[in-house]
Amino acid sequence: MKILVLGGDGYLGWPTAMHLAERGHEVTVVDNYLRRNLARATRSEALMPTPNLHERAEIHQAHGGRPIDVVIGDCTDYRMMAALFERIRPACVVHYAEQPSAPYSMIGYDEARTTLHNNLTATFNVIWAVLEHAPSCHVVKLGTMGEYGTPNIDIEEGWIEIEHKGRKDRFLFPRAAGSLYHTTKVLDTDLLWFYVRTFGLSVTDLMQGPVYGLSTPACDRDPRLAPNFHYDDIFGTVVNRFLVQAVAGVPLTVYGKGGQTRGYLNLLDTLQCVTLAAEKPAAPGELRIFNQFTETFTVQELAERVRDAGAAVGLDVKIDHVENPRKEAEDHYYNPVHKGLVELGLTPHPMTREVLVDMLERVLRHRDRIDERKIHPRVRWR
Amino acid sequence: MKILVLGGDGYLGWPTAMHLAERGHEVTVVDNYLRRNLARATRSEALMPTPNLHERAEIHQAHGGRPIDVVIGDCTDYRMMAALFERIRPACVVHYAEQPSAPYSMIGYDEARTTLHNNLTATFNVIWAVLEHAPSCHVVKLGTMGEYGTPNIDIEEGWIEIEHKGRKDRFLFPRAAGSLYHTTKVLDTDLLWFYVRTFGLSVTDLMQGPVYGLSTPACDRDPRLAPNFHYDDIFGTVVNRFLVQAVAGVPLTVYGKGGQTRGYLNLLDTLQCVTLAAEKPAAPGELRIFNQFTETFTVQELAERVRDAGAAVGLDVKIDHVENPRKEAEDHYYNPVHKGLVELGLTPHPMTREVLVDMLERVLRHRDRIDERKIHPRVRWR
């Protein structure tokens, strides 16, 4: 089927695009390199240099990969989006086109404004491009588990039935996110839900946890096809960051007590989840929400797992508890449901020692490229 | 105290500004005439012409009113907002600066985009101007009862305690609004709640129902000080619209079955509520939410009340059920709590026949200005 991957240059976007193309879909990736530009501006470049999207698509094809069309464009520009949807009339759009960093969104007014404007306008434009030019197109939207925050009740998959004073109704599960970035995803969900129930759009909203991983079958064909791998405090996710710290010989920077619990998943499982969602779409008028992660860990547990994997490859990994730059509960209840994607067919890849060792070995090849100044928290939730 | 009234040219903004000035506060009104411009563009001009803000402030003062400073500026322009807060350092900001029409927000992409951009950016700029230039300033934000939609459970005042699988927590009451305009107010609430809990802002969010009324002590000093009174399908609220239809001899346009129930209030009570909120501020780190209305009616009941009031002044008022241009439940449960403002000191002005007769008499003076083309629904939730 015809699939648009918005934000196709991202850590998840590019591996997703190759994966969907290899499944036989006609894939067009769209990106304006916002994340590359913001990473460069904040000295948060990825560990390995990555070719641009046109080059990546050519390298992918040179290795026998199925073609991927590349559009360099800004999803906040409705003229571009409308023309794209009118030309392609996709059956599915995978929407990753958001500023993805929580710390970035907390730097100051300009960064907060960029995050709010970019993320909400991109989502708004996706909605309208679908309404006006591809009304049966299924929207697969990347949300985040962070939308829910850390409530003191079990987190259901997107919805909750509330019984109150003897009456009942079903609502979006309450959301209270920990950064402006995560809050923009809450706003996205509200906006999507309005247009779904009013105009019958078909939407799958994936509440994803932090992703780790460097390896997918298509990425492994050529080092230049690797996902862009950030290890800094702004664009790096926690597992990737810890692995680079382990290789660099820098103590792992656990924020505060380290009791913060989150749901994690392997990059391979992101590809599975997005593919399952795309190939088994939501019904018209349905906002289908899945909690997209496979295992929960505290940050302390993650650090210990990385330390153990480090020992297996001869690294002496230390763990350091640094002052928490974020405002978040460091010790809290966390019991999110995550059944929907397994029922749809997800086979999880757990975070085994082998998986972490393989990642460490890949990072070790780039040891000399690690810039220690990128490792320590630079952004505080003031 | 120093109070900024953003959106001070509006139906509520201008009477609020005069009222707060008469209470002895140092009031500055800010507006960019967006609503005037949109009303002109959609042929939805108010019943009586209203002088501009500078003129209004002069007329108010000529009648012995306390001075009101006027700033013509766009609240989506952060440079303007930041400079304003830095110069004035208000103790309170009353934020009405939003595109206020649900039908307008449902016309098409451009109108939806304008609504989303204007409303969310204005709120975002208020938050940041407070954070950066007046951190102890209390934000009084006008939300809407429409944020909640029409759930099948009792509507609490902003918050709800949920017991789920044997555990409890307190959350924002679930929201599911009926138009994009109302949805932007949901997004505002989410955004305010994030910044309140992260940075300790002090915010009162008023979930207001539809307001009716033409008369306040300050407005009544001079016809040129009257609130701008829209009676069209786009900018007119339902009671005001029915009164003009009654005077024009056009059957009252009840949408669908007319079982839609909402909470209403007199303009005098809006002034009371906003003043009470401003003079008894929320605590730092508190998002205080009140449901701001005094009585609930179905649309059918409102139409019948207007018919009865019409009979008292010799008008033969007919009621017509027209196809509902909106997507909304026409027969639903509705039981919202509204205690907080009464506890704070609100003395409600109920919708008596005398109140409606007084409004009809005021409208009758402008009978020749009524344009019947503005009365029937022009915007459909497609």
Would you kindly provide a written description of the structure presented here, covering whatever features stand out?
The structure is a homodimer of 382-residue chains. With 382 residues, the first copy, chain A, is α/β, with parallel strands linked by helices. The first copy, chain A, has a single domain (2-374), classed as NAD(P)-binding Rossmann-like Domain (Rossmann fold). The first copy, chain A, has twelve helices and 14 strands. Chain A has helices at 13-22, 34-41, 53-62, 78-88, 102-105, 109-133, 180-199, 238-248, 267-279, 299-312, 340-344, 353-364, and strands at 2-6, 26-31, 68-72, 92-95, 138-144, 159-164, 167-172, 202-208, 211-212, 252-255, 261-266, 287-292, 295-298, 319-322. Chain A has a seven-stranded parallel sheet, with helices on both faces. In chain A, helix 1 links the parallel strand 1 and strand 2. Chain A is globular and about 55 Å long. The model of chain A has no long low-confidence stretch (mean pLDDT 97). Chain A binds chain B through residues 78, 109, 112-113, 116-117, 120-121, 124, 128, 132, 151-154, 160, 162-165, 167-169, 171-172, 174-177, 180, 183, 186-187, 190-191, 193-194, 197-199, 327, 333, 381-382, and chain B through 78, 109, 112-113, 116-117, 120-121, 124, 128, 132, 151-154, 160, 162-165, 167-169, 171-172, 174-177, 180, 183, 186-187, 190-191, 193-194, 197-199, 327, 333, 381-382.
